[in-house]
Amino acid sequence: MMITAATPLLNVAEIHRSIDFYRLLGFEVVARTLSDLDEQPVWAMLEAGGGDTRIRLMLAAHGGVSHEERRMRPSFAGLVWYLECNDVDGMFDTINDAGFKPEPVTELEDGTHQFFVRDPDGYEIAVTEPNGYTVG
Questions:
Q1: Do 19 and 31 meet the contact criterion of CB atoms below 8 Å apart?
Q2: Beta-ladder partners of 55
Q3: Cβ 21 vs Cβ 100: under 8 Å
Q4: The model scores a pTM over 0.85
Q5: Could you report the per-residue pLDDT of 96-133, keeping only the tens digit for each?
Q6: HEC string for the chain
């Protein structure tokens, strides 16, 4: 028995705004649930990649509780989501041009290039271009 996939669920203030942000990273909506009251999305499944490489992300409306309010809860845990890509500089330009103000691209001792950016709800995203590491 083994885990075959991992899909984070992020509670967000406005699903449309978050979808727009994650589209910059290559995600597309593959499923959603609409509110019975106003036909606005209350949940969405996003997916990036293709073939053997699929990355999924779920977004859920959190009912008006802000990220700052969630931070005050004892159960709050910080999250940094690491996403690998094949062109960190190009992704940096895309995110920066969209007005999200990523931190500068840095190079780690092992040659990995990466930068950090916050999504519209304050979740920290690390975009990284690994330099041929192996897991062993």
A1: no
A2: 48
A3: yes
A4: no
A5: 999 999 999 998 887 889 999 999 988 888 898 876 54
A6: CCCCCCCCEEEECCHHHHHHHHHHCCCEEEEEEECCCCCCEEEEEEEEEECCEEEEEEEEECCCCCHHHHHCCCCCCCCEEEEECCCHHHHHHHHHHCCCCCCCCEECCCCCEEEEEECCCCCEEEEEECCCCCCC
d(CA 39, CA 79): 30
Tokens, residue 102: 């990523």
Q: How far apart are CA 83 and CA 129, in angstroms?
A: 9
In the chain, the largest separation of any two C-alpha atoms, in whole Å, equals: 53
